[in-house]
């Protein structure tokens, strides 16, 4: 994957800009509030369809404007191509080359990349949703069928929860069967992803930290059901209780994975520096896994590189980054 250029129009502070990238390491250096993170944010929108800073696309429009446009030109497996996102203030429209895409999730897997921001420390400290999103963005970039099943499951879940709350049990089964068909595959893919990340994260953590402490990742799911029949039975079993609380208690929307360092959960046990190193190791492991599954080196993007690391660990990280494909990092020159 070679990112050649991005174009930004009315995207946050950028009125009209074109930025070219080189193969290998690209460093974006400058004082605060110059638009460094915004560049990575724009690339991130073209990787995943969403900003890593906000769920409100209106916030991305430059103050005083009414729409924004971003475009990336890149070469993948020898083919020059582009992805574009146009937001008119109400609706996002995505394009691959000149073709309009049917939905935002169709962008996944085109411009492939992994982004690490200081906020990603939440992968260790934060709620299960952060870890599910981490896995979803890994699998979705390499498996379009996963995106289909995840969207179908989440749509079914929303409908089911709405019906539980309004106590309309007659139509519940149709949505439960949609959910049951997709849930098993989602859990299987997530379980496999966690298993494959574990040895990579362990090795990279050791390289970055020079600590020999074992790192383990354990996929956790609520409920034992795996096959569609078992999932349907599980949903039926909890219906009464779930009607009282108004939401669905079991299924992949409650998944998590436990990150342990030595004998203890990293969230409670690891020092801040260890947490930062661990986050890097997990995201770098994700980079390797996308590369393995798609035969193509994804972009590696790091915002405020080296934050939370001592100088020795920072040095090891830079050494590591030299061996990845194209890397874009930002840092302050203060
Ligand atoms: N919608 C917007 N319109 C105009 N300016 C914006 C918008 N959103 C953010 N900004 C400005 O962009 C700047 C932040 O850019 P950012 O990429 O975070 O900088 P850096 O990472 O270099 O510190 C801030 O000065 C902020 O006020
Ligand atoms: Mg910044």
Give the N-terminus to C-terminus distance in angstroms. Answer: 32 Å
- Give helix and strand order, one letter per element, not per position: EEEHEEEEEHHHHEHEEHHEHE
The major β-sheet equals:
6 strands, antiparallel
The count of helical stretches stands at 9
Could you explain the architecture of this structure?
The protein is α+β, with helices and mostly antiparallel strands and 334 residues long. It has a six-stranded antiparallel sheet, covered by helices on one side. The radius of gyration is 21 Å and the shape is globular. The mean pLDDT is 95. The structure holds adenosine-5'-diphosphate (ADP) and magnesium ion (MG). The site of magnesium ion (MG) has 4 residues, from α1.
Question: Any chance you could write out the topology, listing elements then pairs?
Answer:
Blueprint: E1 2-11, E2 14-20, E3 25-29, H1 36-48, E4 68-76, E5 79-87, E6 92-96, E7 99-100, E8 113-116, H2 122-125, H3 128-140, H4 144-166, H5 172-209, E9 215-220, H6 228-245, E10 256-261, E11 264-265, H7 266-269, H8 272-294, E12 299-302, H9 311-321, E13 327-331
Parallel strand pairs: 3-13, 8-12, 12-13
Antiparallel strand pairs: 1-2, 1-4, 4-5, 5-6, 6-7, 9-10, 10-11
Helix pairs in contact: 3-5, 4-5, 4-6, 5-6, 5-8
This protein binds adenosine-5'-diphosphate (ADP) and magnesium ion.
